[in-house]
Amino acid sequence: MARVLDDALAEMPTPARGSLWRQVLGALGGWPAAAGLAATACVGLWVGGVMSEEFIVTLGIFEGASLDVGSDFGAFDLLLVDG
Question: Per its UniProt entry, which superkingdom is the organism in (predicted)?
């Protein structure tokens, strides 16, 4: 039985360990996911740098807006809203 088990273990493929970058890309989902993450980061930095005073004043009209969810259901109350 041990000989059969040794033969089976010898035939099993060994996982090839790649470089650190290959492992990171594999964890993220490959090159397409990494490219999307990089593009999103660049857009976030761009929007953060472009945020001008006029844009902030325009967003100021929404400061007084609030949503009263209530304490009975928490966030589940939003699912009960009809319409």
Answer: Bacteria
Please give the Cα distance from 33 to 26 (Å, whole number). 10
Sequence-separated (6 or more) residues with CB below 8 Å from residue 79: none
Classify residue 25 as exposed, middle or buried by CB count within 10 Å of its CB (0-12, 13-18, 19+).
middle
Query: pLDDT tens digits, residue range 16-66?
Result: 788 888 888 888 899 999 999 999 999 888 877 776 666 566 655 666 555
In the structure encoding, which two tokens stand for residue 69, read together? 């969810």
pLDDT category of residue 6 using cuts at 50, 70 and 90: very high
Are the C-beta atoms of residues 50 and 57 closer than 8 Å to each other? no
Angle (deg, nearest 10), helices 20-28 and 31-50: 80
